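Q: What residues go here?
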């Protein structure tokens, strides 16, 4: 049985946008929808009632969200779950490796893009499966015909297998064109090795070399998803900036994750970080296979 798509809600406008996006995606993929509200009891002198009262409010809000989204999509299997405890831990646990977790984010236009809070940042960095971030103003018309799914590819075929699989699956479910983007830069002269110089010479130069690398990474997924039209785009420049430049008409941007731990918390990699903060559409961050 296919794993459900999980949407995290907290009563905010951005989480309702995430829930709406997740429901549409669940319908497209023929999956169930699981709605999760992570909650921790916080006593407050200005709020009457104890744990049971607060739990009742949370459960009531969740049930209302479930009823509303089920009413919009008759036939969609929708379940709701309140998880008490730390929000990051609860949402990371909800991010099944074979599923999909959808979060909301406040958005303030194309310049500012997404406002990624500490919870969202940590969940994206630690989740075992793909996480999609949806801004509060996202609407269904942004998924209209003619808008592409854009995916960033780097490294070799094995390095990008997970992100390309997700991108092809998503494009196939939407009947969309997939634009595969590979950015490259000239490294300092001292970084060249005799072996790398020989590969560049055999390929006819850096541009043909990068195009060949992108085509080779895409080939197995083209064969698996022959119905998906693919546009290959190779450009010199910063990977994050190149992805943003070509995503003006994207309905979704898909990037890989390079999470690492630091003294100030988890980091998700510069490319994913830049795209998350400035993309004009929802962004999917996919962990390595």
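A:
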């Amino acid at each position: 049985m296919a794993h459900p798509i999980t949407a995290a809600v907290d009563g905010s406008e951005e989480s309702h946008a995430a829930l709406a996006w997740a429901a549409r995606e669940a319908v497209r993929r023929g999956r169930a929808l699981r709605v999760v509200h992570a909650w921790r009891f916080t006593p407050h002198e200005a709020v009457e009632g104890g744990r049971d009262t607060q739990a009742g409010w949370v459960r009531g809000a969740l049930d209302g969200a479930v009823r509303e989204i089920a009413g919009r999509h008759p036939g969609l299997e929708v379940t709701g779950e309140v998880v008490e405890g730390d929000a990051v831990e609860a949402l990371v646990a909800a991010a099944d490796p074979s599923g999909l977790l959808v979060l909301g984010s406040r958005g303030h236009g194309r310049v500012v893009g997404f406002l990624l809070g500490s919870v969202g940042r940590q969940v994206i960095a630690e989740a075992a499966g793909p996480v999609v971030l949806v801004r509060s103003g996202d609407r269904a018309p942004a998924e209209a015909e003619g808008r592409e799914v854009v995916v960033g590819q780097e490294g070799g075929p094995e390095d990008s297998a997970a992100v390309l699989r997700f991108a092809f699956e998503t494009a196939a479910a939407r009947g969309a064109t997939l634009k595969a983007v590979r950015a490259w830069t000239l490294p300092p002269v001292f970084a060249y090795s005799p072996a790398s110089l020989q590969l560049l010479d055999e390929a006819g130069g850096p541009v043909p070399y990068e195009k060949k690398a992108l085509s080779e990474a895409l080939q197995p997924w083209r064969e698996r998803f022959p119905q998906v039209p693919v546009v290959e785009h190779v450009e010199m420049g910063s990977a994050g900036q190149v992805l943003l430049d070509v995503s003006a008409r994207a309905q979704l941007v898909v990037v890989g994750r390079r999470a690492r731990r630091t003294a100030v918390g988890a980091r998700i990699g510069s490319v994913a970080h830049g795209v998350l903060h400035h993309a004009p559409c929802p962004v999917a961050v996919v962990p390595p296979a």
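A: Context that may help when evaluating the design: Residues 182 and 234 are 5 Å apart (CA to CA). The chain has ten helices and 13 strands.
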